[in-house]
Specification:
Layout lengths: L7 H11 L5 H21 L22
């Protein structure tokens, strides 16, 4: 199910807030692709507990005694 692109008015506000100077072609291309950014944000930005990230263990080997 394809999402509708963000409205031109709302996207223009985001472009201005970011301080971007876009050509009309760049504006249209970025506006069309912004829905994928929105989908990614919904996936990435969610609460997670400790179990969501595996533990990493690093053990420094001891040097051989001479």
């Amino acid at each position: 199910m394809a999402e509708e692109p963000i409205s031109s008015e709302r996207f223009q506000i985001l472009v201005e807030q970011a301080g971007l100077a876009l050509t009309p072609e760049q504006f249209a291309a970025l506006r069309e692709g912004y829905r994928f950014v929105q989908r990614m944000r919904r996936t990435v930005r969610r609460s997670r507990d400790r179990a969501a990230e595996p533990a990493h263990i690093f053990v420094q080997p001891r040097p051989e005694a001479s």
